[in-house]
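Problem 12. The chain below contains 197 residues. Write out its predicted structure in C-alpha cell notation.
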Amino acid sequence: IHLEQEFRFVLVQQLAERWQDGVAAREIASGRWQVLVLQERGGQLACLAKPQQRNEPECAASVGAHRKFAKLAGEQHMRVILLGTWGPDAIWQGQLSRGLRQLAEATGARALDIGPLVRAHAKAHPQTPMYSDAILHPTLDASLLMAAGLYRMISGHVPQAASFEIDVPLLPGLARVDAGKLLSTQSQLAGDGAVTR
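Solution.
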C-alpha cells in the first residue's frame, strides 16, 4: 500500500513538490541509500538554457529543489545523478541538455543526458518506437536504454544481458493509470498471469 500511495505522487508532481511533501527527503535522511537519481518532469530543465526563463517561478522552484535534494544527499554521503529527459526536436533537446549540464555543475551532481541517446537510438532503429504517445512517454525499449545507462553510471560496469523469469503482472505498454486509486484495484494493470521470460 505504501508503494502504491507513493506511485500516485510520482505521477503528478514536479521535483519541487516532491521536496515539499517531504517523503523523499525523509528517505534520504534515513541514511539507507547510496545513490540519489533525480529526474525533473518532461522538458522543465529547458528553461535553464534561456536566461529570460530562469527566474520564472516554475524554473526557479525546480532549481531550488535540485539544490536542496543534492545538499541533503551530500550530507548523507550519497552520490547524486541527474537523469535527463528528451525533447521532440533537436532544438529543444539542445536546450534540455544545456539545462541539465548547468544544473549538474551548480549542484555537484553527475549528469546522465539520456535524451540524445534515446533520440539517436530512435533514428538508427526507426522500426523500434521509443515513445508510447505524443507526450513522449518512454516505451519499454527506451526504459531499458535508461536503465542500462543508470546501471553503468552507478556500478561502473556495462550491464550484461541475462535471461530470467517473472510471474508477476507487467504493466501493459499503454495502460491508463488512475492516480486517485490504488494500483491493486485497477484491473487494466492486473496482467494476464503468464510467466514472462
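Discussion. DSSP finds seven helices and three strands in the chain. Students who got a different answer should revisit the alignment rule from Section 12.3.
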